[in-house]
Amino acid sequence: MAAILGTDQPDIVYLTLKEEHVSKAGKLLADSFVHDEVLAQVVDIPYDERLEYDQENCRMSVDDGTSLVAIDNATAEIVGVLAGQILQGQDYSQFDQEDLECSVPNTALILQAESLFFTSPDFRKNPECKILNVFKLGVHKDYRRLGIAKKLVEMHEDIARQKGCSWILATPSGQASQNLYSKSGYLEIGEIFYRDFVFNVACVRRSRRRMPDTESSNILMDK
Hints:
Distance between the termini: 22 Å
Structural class: alpha+beta
Number of helices: 8
Shape: globular
CATH architecture: 3-Layer(aba) Sandwich
Order of helices and strands: EHHHEEHHHEHEHEE
Low-confidence stretches: 1-7, 200-216
Radius of gyration: 17 Å
Number of domains: 1
Helix content: 25-40%
């Protein structure tokens, strides 16, 4: 799968994420989280741990061919990533409180947000459906506002249709990604405010300051 933007844009090629992309794709996602996410500003997550987590998510998503990378043809560097994986609804519908006993704080937040979907009436009507679950979306800071994230989301929707998925499940935790999914027609079915979320003590390394009392939140969206 590949597509190239017009000549008035950088020469960007979009490809299905492969094993050879995992290392750099995971690094881009980790860097995006550390520099852009409100959650990263509140809770100290060791960078090596964040990197390992994102690279493992990319590695997990290789087999079913549902993740994408954007590559600058001029430099051969990965400048955008959308990582995801197909879930079988019946296998993931049980929200386990023990899953909150994690070492990566935002994982606990996302799991709690996803539980809102799996307990929703829409899901319960068809609990055996396929779901394309979005792990993470990131674009290199020097390539933003070029439509790369939008293109990745659109191509992800094509993949969902081709794979027979009933839903796309996204939990965007940054304001920019929340806005993107909203403008792309995704419906908000749940919201968890950072200020209201209580992390298990095992999940928190050091807290620089309290969770922000702002509108920033983790929103659960589906399409």
